[in-house]
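4.2 Preliminary Data

To establish feasibility before requesting continued support, the project team ran the inverse folding procedure on a target of 64 residues. The structure was first converted into the token representation described in Section 3, and no sequence information of any kind was made available to the design step. The complete token record follows.
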């Protein structure tokens, strides 16, 4: 019995996927998604600089 027989066998390498041709609609959709993501990231960084949103209102004590 040799030491190399045990354990998991390595899977065979699969063939590379063929690149898919994208038409104008798909290109426009991808571009719109990128722009939306950039806008969302900008809003996240802007909101991170501010404090919590629950600032006003009636403060309740823990006593009952």
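Position-by-position output of the design step:
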């Amino acid at each position: 019995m040799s030491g190399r027989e045990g354990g998991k066998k390595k899977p065979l390498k699969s063939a590379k996927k063929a690149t898919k041709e994208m038409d104008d609609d798909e290109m426009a959709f991808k571009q719109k998604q990128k722009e939306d993501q950039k806008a969302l990231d900008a809003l996240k960084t802007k909101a991170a600089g501010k404090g919590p949103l629950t600032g006003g209102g009636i403060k309740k004590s823990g006593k009952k």
